[in-house]
Structure formats: structure tokens, C-alpha cells
Design brief:
The protein is mostly helical.
Length: 382
């Protein structure tokens, strides 16, 4: 009987109830909230479901992220191996390959002025960078945090890894992906506050047709130009443009389908789950995390506002031919930000179709955020 009692006592004390802290329960509750937003509200479920479930797993069983060095038998936790691919910048680069294969760059080619809107929306990154320094973050950490303003999760992870700021990767990645998911909530009030009803009703002329040759040459030319100026952007820009070349050249249909479907979804599962698993209570429940989340929001809000403001300038210069709403799409969250521009425009006039016009700044924003990351790496000599 004694052995049975001892065995039962050991089994009971092996359960999570005896090993979790109050912080773990807080993070489990946060995971439930994110799952609710993803499943019930539909806020970017492809991102939030794996992230929130990774958060749930690591707070129920912290050893699932156990490093090889800390383990007694030399074997790390399952999600630790996924996380290594984040640290090595493999997953972010593969995500960019998939995004390139899924995205039509035609609207950007047809309206090169979209590059200016995409560049303007990066203003929030630099605002957040200086604010982070004022709040006491080291310069490299400030740079990694500021990229959240581009609403681009893969680039945030990529820069954080390259600048060796992995201690901040969990909060940065979760904040970046959360703001990507919350684009339909955060952006519309800013867009409406900065524009008039008449501006939101502006109908833009149909974009010119883009030839197949232009679409093939575009990713090649952009790769050469950007990587010649900022070689450190090669992993992101190179994969983005390679994926788009797959799409447009017309001779590698199988590669296009694989990059934009099977591979993309596999990477999203592994990256999202491993990112969520960085949010253990010990690592996440800190004042530093709160500062990062606030800075990310400030960066994202300023980026949206700067894009809309530059859109208003272009509207004046072109005598009302540009709807300022498309400037908000320059924050990079593809294609959600472009859809938000369409939605807000359609609320003012149901016959107004801005989606394709907004895709130009949206794609430019992806390139612009990668360039901003490359600029920081050049500044710090990485």
C-alpha cells in the first residue's frame, strides 16, 4: 500500500497544477483570449491560432521550450528546435518566398508613385526607434522593436535575430503579429480622423495593364538595385522577389504552387507555434514587454498616419486623383491593409473600389520595411 500511495503522490505532483505559477495562469488566460479573437472574430486566424496555441503549450509545460544546454539528457524541447529556425532567419525568409509567390506586383508596377506611399508609412519605425532609446532600450534593441511599426512579423523576427536581440524576440514577434491581426481595428479610426468624407469618396482611374515582360523584369531589377545598395537585405528581398519570379515567369507552376500553398502553410504553423512558445510567464510578464507592446502600437499608428498624410499630399498635387486612404496600406501587412483601405472607402461610397490601387503601397511597404531593416543592419555593421 505504501508503494501505491507513493506512486500516486508522485503522479499527482507531476501534474501541472503543482508546477505552474500565477504568471503561467495569466498567460494561459491571454492565450484563450487570442484564440477567441482568432476563431470567433476571425482576426488573422492563420497567425493567431498557432501563436496562441504555442503560448498555451509553453505555459502548461515550460520544458517544451527547454534548450539543449539546459536539458539533462542533451535533448531540447520540441518547440525549441522550431525556434532555432526563427533565430537562424530561415522561417522569415521562407515566409517572404511564399508572400512573393502569392502576390501580384502589377499594381505597384502600374503606379510607381506607390513606392512613395510605402516609404512614407515607414515613418513610424523611426519614431519608435527614438522613443525606445528615450525609454532606456539599447540602440540595437530599439531598432529591433521599431520594426514592429511596419506590421511585418517576419522582418521583425529577422532583424531581432541579426542584431542578436533574441531576449526581446518573443514580445517583439507577438506584438508584430498581433498588430498585423488587429489592422482592421486599429487603422480605420486613424484613417477616418485624418480624411474628410469627400476625400474618402474619391474614385481613382483604372490602372494601366502591365505586360508580362514588365512583371518578369521587376523582381530581377528590384533584387539587383536593392541588394547592391543594402546587401544585408538579400535574404528577405531575394526570397520575396524569387517567389514573385516563380509566379510571373510562367514556367515553374509547380514551384509557385508549392511556395504559395504547402510550404507557406507549413512554415506559418511552425513559425507561429514557436513564436507563441517564447511567451512563457517568466519571459513575458515584465515591464519591458509592456513597453515593447506600447512602442509597437505607437510605431504602427504613426506609420498609418504618415501614409495617409502623404496620400493627402499626393491628392492635392494630382488635383484629387489619389484617394488618401490607400496611403494607410503602406504599413506592409499584405493583403489585410489593402483590404482595410477598400473597406473604409466603400463605407463612404459602396461603388468605390480601391483594393488594387491600395495593393501598390501595400507591396511597396513590404519592400520598404525590409529596406528599413537592412538600413539598421548597415548602421550597426551587421
Amino acid at each position: 500500500m505504501t508503494s501505491i500511495a507513493t506512486t500516486l503522490d508522485n503522479l499527482i505532483h507531476q501534474t501541472a497544477f503543482f508546477n505552474l505559477s500565477w504568471g503561467n495562469y495569466v498567460m494561459i488566460l491571454v492565450a484563450f483570449v487570442l484564440l477567441y479573437l482568432a476563431i470567433r472574430k476571425g482576426y488573422e486566424p492563420l497567425l493567431l491560432v498557432p501563436i496562441s496555441f504555442g503560448m498555451l503549450l509553453v505555459n502548461l509545460f515550460p520544458d517544451i521550450m527547454l534548450t539543449i544546454e539546459d536539458s539533462e539528457n542533451g535533448v531540447g524541447g520540441l518547440l525549441h528546435y522550431f525556434y532555432l529556425l526563427d533565430e537562424w532567419s530561415i522561417f522569415p525568409s521562407l515566409i517572404f518566398l511564399g508572400v512573393g509567390a502569392m502576390t501580384d506586383f502589377g499594381p505597384l508596377i502600374a503606379n510607381p508613385m506607390s513606392f512613395l506611399l510605402g516609404a512614407a508609412a515607414q515613418f513610424g519605425i523611426y519614431v519608435a526607434y527614438f522613443l525606445a532609446i528615450l525609454l532606456g532600450f539599447p540602440e540595437k534593441a530599439a531598432a529591433a522593436i521599431s520594426i514592429i511599426g511596419g506590421a511585418d512579423g517576419p522582418t521583425s523576427i529577422f532583424l531581432c535575430s541579426k542584431l542578436r536581440q533574441t531576449e526581446y524576440m518573443g514580445p517583439i514577434a507577438v506584438a508584430a503579429y498581433s498588430y498585423m491581426s488587429l489592422v482592421p481595428i486599429i487603422q480605420p479610426p486613424i484613417m477616418k480622423w485624418m480624411t474628410t468624407e469627400e476625400e474618402r469618396m474619391i474614385k481613382m482611374e483604372q490602372l494601366r495593364p502591365v505586360s508580362k515582360l514588365e512583371k518578369i523584369l521587376f523582381p530581377i531589377v528590384v533584387t539587383v538595385v536593392v541588394v547592391m545598395i543594402l546587401p544585408t537585405t538579400a535574404p528577405l528581398i531575394g526570397m520575396l522577389m524569387l517567389g514573385n519570379l516563380f509566379r510571373e515567369c510562367g514556367v515553374v507552376r509547380q514551384l509557385t504552387e508549392t511556395a504559395s500553398n504547402a510550404m507557406m502553410y507549413i512554415v506559418v504553423i511552425l513559425l507561429g507555434t514557436s513564436v507563441g512558445a517564447t511567451t512563457s510567464a517568466e519571459a513575458f510578464l515584465k515591464w519591458t514587454t509592456i513597453k515593447i507592446v506600447i512602442l509597437g502600437f505607437v510605431a504602427f499608428a504613426f506609420g498609418t498616419a504618415a501614409g495617409v498624410l502623404f496620400g493627402k499630399i499626393m491628392c492635392k498635387v494630382t488635383h484629387g486623383k489619389v484617394n488618401p486612404l490607400i496611403g494607410s496600406a503602406g504599413v506592409s501587412a499584405v493583403p489585410m491593409a489593402a483590404r482595410v483601405s477598400q473597406k473604409v472607402g466603400a463605407e463612404a461610397d459602396p461603388t468605390n473600389f480601391l483594393l488594387m490601387h491600395a495593393m501598390g503601397p501595400n507591396v511597396a511597404g513590404v519592400i520598404g520595411t525590409a529596406v528599413a531593416a537592412g538600413t539598421f543592419m548597415a548602421i550597426f555593421g551587421v
